[in-house]
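User: What would this chain look like folded?
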Amino acid sequence: MPRDWPPGLPPLPALTRAESEVVDAYLEVLDLVGRINPARGRDTYGALRAAQGLASKAVRLRDALALMHERGESTLHATTLERALRVLEGDRRAERVLLPAPEPGEPGG
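Assistant: Here's the prediction, encoded as structure tokens.
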């Protein structure tokens, strides 16, 4: 565990370097898609900047997955990766990608 790991957080599960890269890149993509989400956005400039950054982050994610594949890491250990994503607040970050809950009286609400 890194020295600067915040106290009180559960430790990250043991990950290969490539798995860590996949998790980090995935969360970066998720954050950007959340900023682009037109149902949650505030301004076009912020969404534009996030969209511009999305391509490079997607390349980083692709490269991390390609490296895993090239090294023979053919299986994504979903349970371990899920734990890592939860520790890193992936569930909170993913909420920004979803549509907000409808207000009472709106269709679907």
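Residues 17 and 68 are 9 Å apart (CA to CA). If you want, I can go into more detail on any region.
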